[in-house]
Amino acid sequence: xxxxxxxxxxxxxxxxxxxxxxxxxxxxxxxxxxxxxxxxxxxxxxxxxxxxxxxxxxxxxxxxxxxxxxxxxxxxxxxxxxxxxxxxxxxxxxxxxxxxxxxxxxxxxxxxxxxxxxxxxxxxxxxxxxxxxxxxxxxxxxxxxxxxxxxxxxxxxxxxxxxxxxxxxxxxxxxxxxxxxxxxxxxxxxxxxxxxxxxxxxxxxxxxxxxxxxxxxxxxxxxxxxxxxxxxxxxxxxxxxxxxxxx
Amino acid sequence: xxxxxxxxxxxxxxxxxxxxxxxxxxxxxxxxxxxxxxxxxxxxxxxxxxxxxxxxxxxxxxxxxxxxxxxxxxxxxxxxxxxxxxxxxxxxxxxxxxxxxxxxxxxxxxxxxxxxxxxxxxxxxxxxxxxxxxxxxxxxxxxxxxxxxxxxxxxxxxxxxxxxxxxxxxxxxxxxxxxxxxxxxxxxxxxxxxxxxxxxxxxxxxxxxxxxxxxxxxxxxxxxxxxxxxxxxxxxxxxxxxxxxxx
DNA sequence: AAGTGGTCTAGACCACGAA
DNA sequence: TCGTGGTCTAGACCACTTC
Lengths: 247, 247
Known about the structure:
Chain A is an alpha+beta fold. Chain A has two domains: 3-79, Arc Repressor Mutant, subunit A; 88-241, Chorismate lyase (3-Layer(aba) Sandwich), CATH 3.40.1410. Chain A has helices spanning 3-7, 16-29, 42-48, 53-65, 94-100, 119-125, 172-179, 196-202; strands spanning 38-39, 69-72, 76-79, 85-91, 105-116, 132-142, 145-155, 184-193, 209-219, 222-232, 238-241. In chain A, the strands form three sheets. In chain A, strands 5-6-7-10-9-8 form a six-stranded antiparallel β-sheet. In chain A, strands 1-3-2 form a three-stranded antiparallel β-sheet. The model of chain A is unreliable at 8-12 (pLDDT under 50). At the A-B interface, β4, β8, β9 and β11 of A face α2, β4, β8, β9 and β11 of B. β8 (184-193) of chain A pairs antiparallel with β11 (238-241) of chain B. The first copy, chain A, binds a DNA duplex through residues 15-17, 41-43, 51-55, 57-58, 60-61, 71-77.
């Protein structure tokens, strides 16, 4: 998957700056222009493509943002050295995840409580003493088998409506994402062995390797929710799509 | 981390289109403009900021690319519903990884072979029968303790110089990344239990949960290398940075 | 000092799609 | 039909940086 093909999703007539971008990207990816190579100046490219400098600039700016070239004033633009391998990891909605596997999705609420946050939780969610949270435990099924165990805290100060929501039919994830507009999240991914509780809930044996994803979601500067998702390791994989990037 | 702050890395004087972008992003993230809200037309914004339409267009185009707004001809631009939670996951160079933890890094080659690819490997790397690969096993240390076990195949047809490279001092990852310009990669992340071999190599007990990352790297249409990295689960975490995105 | 990229303008034409 | 966004132009000024 190339940058040019991402930007123009199979359209019939790519715009001029997209064609320029694609041409240059092709030469870089093919090795014709190796790292360190100076690509033509904006003026030169504008002349080659018989277009204005702004059109060339648009293409080169996108290449620079993608990390394929580096732009230096007075010197020109250069093909960069690839450094780190970065990957765009998609963590999707669990329901969509299951259905994309062609299995039926089911949701079950195991426990629901409203209580004061303890010290550890207050620190993680950046709450004051006495703050109240909703504490949920639930399971997601793919077909008949448990697919994910979810432990979730919701900051009631951030989402007061959660107090009256039973969460017995609708999972907290989709419910929140409808209600809380645009959020930023931090993820942590680990491999763990299933403890007795997880083994019981996911119907696997104790010690089975599991993928554990912790996510903390912020909105407008305050933390809204803290969630831990545990997937049986052998039945779940995270697929990350490419992306060469510079560090 | 906001889009605007990413684009202007703490610079003193953000450009006008960055300021426009930041203003609009702020209203969306704060909830002032909820999903579905129509944001002002380009002409209106141009008038508000007393600038040309192109400047506004630059800001709105970036917001659209980031998925915060959706642009519909004849109707205007609208704040999108957040759908999937996507995350930008960084998979860094192992040496950088270790050193960022403040520990000394060490590398050890366990085995090196040059041989024909078997059927499974040929399929994964899209090779013809009889294709030759370099097969490596190595360990990466953080301090005195093994940190990562690496199994790697290199497609000799793609990187002939690998035949004469002993890989006893330099790890194949950095070596390849210097030599192979710009690549695309596919990742798969799983939790596994350490088998006898992994347990022995990583000096952990059998069955210990581990994070296993498979990566297949392509360059110019052909597969260059296939690598499996195994990290002890409790000592390694993948950190993914935010990123709200629409599906 | 000179040439580069960064930014911006005040126009323009077009395709598309909602009215 | 007609206004919107998508694209492009032919200029312009500026800051920066290397020469």
